[in-house]
Amino acid sequence: MKTSLAILILSAVVVAVIADGEYAPPPLEKKYDGYFQYANVPAKDEYEFGHNRGNPHHNRNQYEQSKDHRFRTKVKWSDSYGGNGEHHWEYNHANPAYKSNDYAAPAYAAPAYPAPAQDYAAPGYSAPYPTYEEAPAAKV
Question: Fewer C-beta neighbours within 10 Å, C or N terminus of the chain?
C-alpha cells in the first residue's frame, strides 16, 4: 500500500513538471554525415554487415556477406593525401572430390652476397642473485 502510494505521488510530480514545460527532452537531430554501420542476419548460416567509418581526412568502408557456403568481402579506404585502396575477396567451397596436386617446394640458390660480419657482441645476461647486507648494530 505504501509503495503504491509513493509511486502514485512520484508519478503526479513527474506529470506536473512535464505539464509546466520545465522539462523538455533534448531535440533529437540526426545529421547524416555519410558514416554508418549495420548488421543483418536474415536466416541461419547467413549474414551480412558493413560500415563506413572515419572522417573527411581518412575513411574506411567494408562490406561482408556469407550465404550458402559463399563468403565475400570488400574493403576500401582513402585519405586526404591521395592514398586509397580496395581489396575484394570471394571464397566458394570447392568440390569435395577435388584433389590438389602436391608440388615440391621450390629450391632456391644461395644468396650471392656474403653474410655481414659481426663486429659487435651482445651483452651477456644471467639470472639475478640476491645479495645480503648485515643490519646496522643497534645503538644503546
Answer: C
pLDDT tens digits along 66-100: 988 788 999 999 998 889 999 999 887 666 666 66
Asked if residue 77 lies in contact with residue 84, where contact means CB atoms within 8 angstroms, the answer is: yes
Provide the residue type at 92 as one letter: N
Q: What is the DSSP string of 97-116?
A: T-----PPPPP-PPPSSPPP
Torsions phi, psi for 10 (to 5 deg): -65, -40
Residue 84 φ/ψ region, left for φ over 0, alpha for ψ in the -120 to 50 degree band, beta for the rest: beta
Residue-wise burial string across 83-97, b where 16 or more C-beta atoms lie within 10 A, e elsewhere: eeeeeeeeeeeeeee
**How many Cα atoms occupy the beta-carbon half-sphere of 121 within 13 Å?**
3
List, for residues 2-43, the tens digit of each pLDDT value.
Answer: 788 788 888 877 777 666 666 666 777 777 778 889 999 998
Q: How many helices (H) and strands (E) would you count in the chain? A: 1, 5
Q: Give this prediction's pTM.
A: 0.44
